[in-house]
Backbone:
């Protein structure tokens, strides 16, 4: 059965007619604002090389763990979905993999994935019928053709999407060659990097030792000495800032921070290098490094992002065969009040530091995060993240944080995605949900419509620019 | 004051007129579907013997901890409510107990109990005025009379309620005589059992040793040896399957699982039998047994249900005098991410195993359970349970699980009740709430109405049949 | 830009027209009921001395941590906001501080603070334009003038606000002189005290030793002996009851209770006095004292309130400079099920005891608190507290507790404030939110409108009077 694909202009607005009218007006003032994407995981090589994307499966399905984890949960093997394993590329025929997705679209009913996909199918590729078993081949063929045309190259899409700024995320061991190539090419698209040092901080990461060696090579520092190790961080941060970075990012299992003496920090570092360390040692080192990163941020001005609370690689069998980031990362209960205290005791009242905190544990929104951000000058709240980057998730974020932290201790939207084509769809969802939330406040006479308009624009555009220091004169020439 | 009793046809639908219209249409397509009740606690003797229920108090009040715990919380002694104690039957006159309920109906405003009761009073008994102090006797008399008529016998009600299948829950030490008698009687009602081995697994259960003896007698196994004990489980599972069982059920204090070596499991079992064991030993044994049950399910195909997180018998004084299941079980914070890992590491990627997980800790819906069920092939989410089997509770379940797990990693509704007459009321509430939730998605243009119709039918009928393997050809002849 | 200030008559009601009509009717029956304020932190000296309040900054901003913490979170130093430090009064000019607030009102969009302020500005001071940078001086001047007039003295406002009863909160070491003076003055306003013994119970409180000495002086007891210490509590409780107290209040870091033997309690007390104690000792002592307080309540009839779960003075630097209660108290995850068990095992089934429990951890509403209060005769649920005393917070409280605990295990509203002028605003918000919640139940046909009217009046007026024993014949002459 073939069904029409329609992106209703009122989608995601509250159903009540009066509230919807207000939402429509608020959304009208933000829908065409440029996209600021200050945190995400697109591949800089796309913009450096500007090569065409290969086909629908390799564009949409194989890299998107939101999609293939859902199919996997219903018993479809990853090998049939185009997902590469440690042994090499997937044995699946891309067209067959695409058909598998197409015939299981009912699994995504009520999920953000279906909204994002339909947005892309309708807005970017112009489809007017839904993806289904019947239309799988039509989709696969038309998408394949389109991708060969110049209008669907990464840079062309970047411009078409009205992206004012896009940040990627790299490891300190990345030589930033794609960012350099982009700049050398003279292309005007503003793509910057962000400093994510987890591989050289997390001693439990499978690549820790190899990353550390590479870290030493790139910086010429003795990274087996504590002072050399810290100096290497300073150098790579500076190098990242030359490629436009205004932020760092830290994806630790918990939000723990520590504030050890120099001697204790040094001894701990030596212990980690000896490889004779416990999980508690590794945790304490990650905790200490957040405080070290904060100290460096006070010097160089980089905004810190903390993304804690994911139990990575939960599925042992899958990890052994397919490696990381395969949809098997599961959120855990996360404490902030005790975890952040050492860092806050040291730097919480600094006005020159900015730390953006995220959570996968919504129970902390009203209980911990809004009260912390509503008090400490250094703290801001990142938007609803990952599993919660969804209509209901975003609504809960606003409902549970606004009354204590207000809107102005939040930082606007992050798409946080490597699904490049979904970026406009994701920002559009955020703008619609914020418009709907503000519209409810207006309809309940808790906020004037004038104030709501101003706030809507701030959430969509001004707050991310300010929070990520994107409108400040850059400290390094290259960031302009 | 006497007030009319009205069951409004639009009850529980969202108030917004447009959304309500959609909900009405969706509900229309499911309201008359047969009831599938794959998990509950009705007494098989009712259907085996088909004896009349005694009176209103003994039918509604004395066995329903939802009702008497609320009266108890306001200072009414259980002895006045018909609730039996360990010393014997209640000293209360049933009519007096009924009057006590009737004159306190305001306590139930806004609770599901009042909706369930009113549904039964109106739909099953035809009352058109509300229960109150003034109408207490009228109710007591009319219900008493009705219960003597053939139309109110258990089997007649079963048929009138349009129940396609009803599962009861029995201990391994139950000889299943009522199920056997039912089958022998030639009655066509499909009532099956389910295997709930807690009394022979939980060494802290007050009947553990006695249950174990009985377990040995029934199976002829040496249940004091580890292999004999496991073999006894296999034999009782097979016997339960002969009485139609398609599932097991496990009501542990936590969701902990373990995967011990054979030697360690055996040693632990011996320790428990020595009675010289710690609470941690008992917990580890329950954890190990979940993994053992999963292993057996891979062989015999029974679906596992895990109902963790209730702190049983919290009120020490009440437990001493009245025993278990007296409304004093309190939910606790429950971890799933670490707890389930040992079992999932062993069997999480099996396609021949199905584990349905429940929770009393709603904070785990979006954080842990939806991400786990949205990834692992073996996991499905049971519906909102116990305290959360209520309009707001069900809404939160859908709002917090759908965006990550979708609808198709859930299993439809369980009434989980021993209040037989409330079964249609409870399924009706679930169908109305799901219709309302789907209607909101349609009204917000997040789902087409066609897809919503299909999903509504799946939630009400197809998913429970599939999840509990009720439409599969049975592996044992008796289950047909 | 100057904008009109309007308090819309329908504010906070649900947007749906039909539901709003019902809410309007329900609110109509409660809006003019007298205010019962059984728990709060106003200063009894205001009513004893009836001196005029000084100016807008000292009335609104400097004492209100909701306001200045938000400004502080955005980088405004407390010294610029009129907040006194340990070193003495604030160096800020009150008018300058007021301008700082006025020009940052956008920070409060969507927060209850903005609703409360606007209510006071509009209803109490008659402003018809919003506070902003442009109107800061106008506001400061007009408020300053008004405060000098007799109509704005504390007692006149008390009467204008239609307050039937107001409870303040004092330490056992307070000599209650202001309460005595009030009574001696012949003023008819009913202002009573409440017994908050934290400073003589919490050995980690910075004033513990000094408070203990004062406690001994006031009572003439040897408070370094366990029996003398307990006797001193009994005496101060009696003295508080003479000043109208009907309740005690306990603000511990957790909800832990204990039930030690006499010998163990005595030994623990000696250890605390030796000053050679661990945090765990201090915690155990607080836990034991809750049980001791319950035992005394059984004798003297005082209602217990437990307000647990705040991590006090989280910001070490701020605490060192400005002291306690400066907006740096952060909620923590709070367990009730295990924490309350020792007290409940001892006294949970008493009908002569009443314990009102509060939480800052909303995840405990549906999981722990509603099930506990829906079972134990001694337990009632306090209203949404502190960070959750807000429109969304109150809604969540009702949505998450009503289905299990009903309305009648809750105790109506507490304003819990030291912002005297905001008391009518806060009660008005609570009445509107409850009207809106009840209206939704009526609109969804879950409650009749007659029952909703009765319930609305109970929540606004009857339940607080009953729960705090304000309509019982007093046991002491002074309480009448």
Residues:
């Amino acid at each position: 059965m073939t069904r029409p694909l329609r992106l209703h202009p009122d989608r995601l607005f509250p159903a009540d007619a009066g509230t919807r009218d207000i939402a429509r007006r608020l959304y009208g003032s933000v829908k065409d604002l440029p996209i600021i994407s200050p945190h995400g995981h697109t591949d800089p090589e796309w913009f450096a090389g500007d090569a065409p994307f290969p086909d629908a499966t390799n564009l949409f399905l194989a890299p998107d763990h939101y999609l293939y984890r859902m199919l996997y949960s219903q018993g479809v093997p990853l090998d049939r979905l185009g997902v590469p394993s440690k042994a090499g590329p997937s044995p699946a025929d891309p067209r067959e993999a695409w058909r598998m997705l197409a015939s299981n679209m009912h699994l995504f009913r009520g999920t953000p994935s279906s909204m994002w996909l339909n947005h892309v199918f309708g807005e970017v590729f112009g489809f007017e019928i839904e993806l289904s078993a019947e239309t799988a081949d039509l989709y696969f063929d038309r998408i394949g053709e389109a991708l060969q045309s110049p209008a669907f190259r990464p840079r062309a899409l970047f411009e078409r999407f009205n992206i004012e700024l896009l940040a990627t995320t790299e490891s300190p061991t990345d030589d930033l060659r794609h960012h350099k190539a982009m700049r050398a090419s003279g292309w005007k698209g503003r793509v910057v990097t962000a400093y994510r040092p987890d591989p050289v901080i997390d001693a439990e990461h499978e690549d820790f030792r190899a990353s550390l060696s590479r870290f030493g090579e790139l910086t010429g520092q003795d990274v087996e000495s504590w002072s050399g190790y810290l100096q290497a961080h300073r150098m790579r941060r500076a190098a990242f800032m030359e490629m436009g970075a205004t932020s760092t990012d830290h994806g630790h299992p918990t939000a723990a921070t520590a504030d050890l003496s120099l001697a204790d920090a040094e001894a701990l570092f030596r212990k980690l290098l000896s490889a004779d360390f416990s999980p508690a040692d590794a945790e304490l080192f990650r905790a200490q490094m957040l405080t070290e990163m904060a100290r460096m941020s006070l010097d160089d001005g980089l905004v810190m992002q903390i993304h804690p609370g994911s139990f990575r690689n939960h599925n042992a069998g899958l990890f052994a065969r397919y490696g990381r980031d395969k949809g098997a990362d599961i959120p855990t209960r996360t404490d902030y009040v005790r975890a952040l205290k050492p860092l806050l005791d040291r730097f919480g009242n600094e006005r020159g530091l900015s730390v953006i905190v995220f959570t996968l544990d919504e129970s902390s929104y009203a209980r911990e995060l809004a009260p912390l951000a509503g008090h400490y000058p250094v703290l801001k709240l990142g938007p609803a993240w990952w599993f919660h980057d969804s209509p209901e998730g975003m609504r809960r974020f606003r409902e549970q944080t606004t009354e204590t932290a207000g809107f102005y201790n939040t930082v606007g939207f992050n798409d946080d995605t490597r699904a490049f084509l979904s970026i406009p769809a994701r920002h559009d969802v955020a703008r619609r949900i914020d418009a709907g939330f503000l519209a409810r406040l207006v309809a309940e006479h808790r906020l004037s419509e004038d104030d709501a308009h101003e706030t809507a624009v701030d959430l969509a555009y001004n707050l991310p620019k300010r929070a990520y220091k994107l409108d400040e004169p850059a400290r390094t020439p290259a960031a302009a």
In short: The radius of gyration of chain A is 23 Å.
